[in-house]
Specification:
Layout: H1 2-7, H2 15-24, H3 26-41, H4 46-75, E1 85-90, E2 102-106, E3 113-116, E4 121-124, E5 131-135, H5 138-142, E6 149-151, E7 160-167, E8 170-178, E9 185-187, E10 192-194, E11 204-216, H6 221-228, E12 233-238, H7 244-255, E13 259-265, E14 272-273, H8 274-285, E15 289-293, E16 307-310, E17 313-317, E18 333-339, H9 341-355, E19 360-362, H10 363-366, E20 372-373, E21 389-401, H11 405-414, E22 419-423, H12 432-442, E23 446-452, H13 458-473, E24 478-483, E25 496-499, E26 503-507, H14 513-518, E27 521-527, H15 529-545, H16 565-592
Length: 594
């Protein structure tokens, strides 16, 4: 009824009402124009009229959009280069009735800000440091944050809210969430839920240093020798642990008075083995601090890093502390011993953060509630093909997940200029890392992937190889291979990359979204010719040694980017389709009303 009243209104000063008047009274107007319309259909000018009409509409729409953008910029009341934003939202704290829920706003020094959820309005104060937490229970919130907290009528729904930050009635930032997990906070920049007790870290540059690059199973003595050299401290972090030689080295270090702490995942996939129980009991029974991340709610889906801080140096590797990994009995792994006080200090900080959380349980307590599985240890014997090498790096950057590792790795892919070689146990052909590699190939970057043949990875990796083969056949320089067990190692377990013969990535990060956002992971980015050359030699040897499993085309590929005129042709084709469709519709309407 309301629409009808508007449509019969003859006040043509309103564009909306005039349009509705035309649409409803169109039959009678069409009748009055029928003879003229049929003359158009029989003329050669009807298509030209449609083209001109469509182009005029496109010009008007584009002009309107430009004008609207300019008007928004012109009416903005925020001072230049000021960007107040909502930083964090905590709707569902672990507390009765959600007492202590809060919102963090970075005012950037701008006054006259308000925050609304559509029901109530809160004034955002300007405080020293410019970042403020707003809470209905500020004393509770102050126990969780180290920024100024101000009293405000904050009442957040666990089911979801739309929060709008305004400046003098102008919207400057908006955050919408749903289903807030208990105890987690929303990072309003990445829109990721961060578990309680996890402090996200930035990528940390620790400068230039000497490093010892090594691979497994070739040189399993490197981690043992490093532990044997310790004088003051050993902080060993891992996913699983079942290595008798490492246990022997740690016990010997403890006898020398070295302070030792071991931190492991409490619920690895497949559970803990009896071999792990034996080695952890040996450590714990001799006074070494052993802890598991096994409490609930867990801060990380899995504690998955593999590193050790040894005095003022640090070892970071892709392999677990067990015979198949650091023991050199099976897996192809990459590792690096960084002789860098700054790198050791950064990883010691990571260890301190992770080992003091509410979900950390002493081994002596945890072992009473765990069921253990009998697993036979790896016993493979492999020759040394690549010796460890001492070398210099121009810069070490410490990457950690959750927080920065995934984004940093993809950023390196996005800025590659020549070549990317990746070794990984597995990859998702529909995931962000594979998409990033495909985008790199579209830019003409040569991309190669080495993947594992482990039974639990085979299906997904075959999909990656097949997809890479399809893309390669279209001219993209991307190839993938599944590496089968052989004389040099058992299975691929390394997680690394060489980019532009200048950057090497070594660490625990599996290239999937879950690892980058939910797991604790540690990666060292090594910038310099020497480490890139070392790991590249290993990659090429592994690639050539298993080239028979590559299903990609062997023909030469065109590495040039698509011609610049292709998008123009596509746009013209789309415009032509619109014109034809419009013409067909116009003719049909007229034919229905003779």
């Amino acid at each position: 009824m309301r629409l009808f009243e508007l449509s019969t209104d003859t006040n043509t000063s309103s564009p909306v009402r005039a349009h509705r008047h035309i649409s409803i009274d169109g039959l009678s107007m069409t009748g009055r124009r029928s003879s003229f319309a049929h003359s158009l259909l029989n003329s050669h000018f009807r298509l030209l009229i449609l083209i001109v009409l469509i182009l005029c509409i496109m010009i008007v729409v584009a002009s309107g959009a430009t004008a609207a953008t300019a008007a928004t910029a012109a009416t903005s009341s925020i001072p230049d280069q000021k960007t107040p934003v909502i930083v964090t939202v905590v709707p569902n704290p672990v507390a009765e009735n959600d007492v202590g829920e809060f919102i963090v706003v970075d005012t950037d020094g701008v006054s006259n800000l308000t925050l609304t959820d559509g029901e109530s309005i809160i004034t955002v104060p300007v405080v020293p440091g410019e970042t403020v937490a707003l809470s209905a229970a500020p004393n509770k919130t102050r126990q969780r944050v180290e920024i100024p907290v101000r009293q405000a009528a904050v009442g957040l729904s666990n089911g979801g809210e739309q929060l709008i930050l305004n400046h003098q009635s102008e919207r400057v930032h908006e955050v919408t969430y749903s289903d807030a997990p208990e105890g987690e906070r929303l990072n309003a920049t990445s829109m990721e839920w961060i578990p309680r007790g996890v402090e996200l870290r930035s990528v940390t540059s620790t400068g230039s240093a000497d490093v010892t690059a090594f691979v497994l199973p070739d040189t399993p003595a490197i981690p043992i020798t490093a532990i044997q050299s310790a004088n003051k401290r050993i902080l060993l972090a891992g996913y699983t642990y079942a290595s008798p030689p490492v246990t022997d080295a740690l016990l010997s270090a403890a006898d020398r008075g070295v302070r030792i702490q071991v931190l492991l995942e409490g619920s690895p996939v497949g559970g803990l083995s009896t071999a792990q129980r034996t080695q952890l009991n040996r450590l714990s029974n001799n006074g070494i601090v052993v802890q598991l991340l096994a409490g609930t709610p867990a801060r990380f889906a899995y504690h998955h890093p593999k590193y050790a801080v040894i005095d003022n140096s640090a070892i970071v590797l892709s392999e677990n502390w067990k015979p198949a990994g650091t023991g050199g009995k099976n897996s192809r792994g990459w590792g690096v011993h960084a002789h860098s006080r700054a790198t050791a200090s950064e990883l010691a900080s990571v260890f301190a953060h992770d080992s003091t959380g509410y979900d950390v349980i002493p081994w002596s307590q945890a072992r009473t509630d765990i069921g253990f599985n009998e697993v036979l240890p790896a016993t493979g014997q492999y020759p040394t093909q690549f010796d460890a090498e001492l070398m210099s790096v121009d810069e070490i950057r410490v990457l950690t997940a959750p927080g920065n590792a995934g984004e940093a790795v993809r950023s390196r892919i996005d800025t590659a200029e020549k070549r990317i070689d990746v070794v990984s146990p597995r990859m998702n052909p529909s995931g962000p890392y594979f998409y990033a590699l495909v985008d790199a190939a579209k830019r003409g970057i040569q991309v190669r992937l080495l993947l594992s043949d482990a039974w639990y990875d085979t299906d997904k990796n075959r999909a990656v190889v097949n997809r890479a083969s399809e893309l390669n056949a279209t001219g993209l320089p991307i190839r993938a291979q599944i590496v089968t067990s052989g004389d040099q190692f058992g299975k691929i377990h390394a997680k690394g990359a060489i980019i532009d013969d200048r950057v090497a990535l070594v660490g625990s990060l599996n290239w999937n979204e879950h690892a980058g956002t939910k797991n604790r992971e540690v990666v060292l980015e090594l910038v310099g010719d020497e480490p890139a050359t070392y790991y590249s030699r290993v990659f090429i040897a592994d690639w050539q040694g298993y080239e028979g499993t590559d299903t990609a085309s062997r023909r030469g590929v065109n590495t040039e980017s698509e011609p610049e005129y292709v998008p123009v042709l596509l746009a013209l084709g789309a415009l032509a389709a619109v014109i034809i469709a419009g013409y067909a519709l116009y003719s049909t309407i007229l034919s229905d009303h003779p």
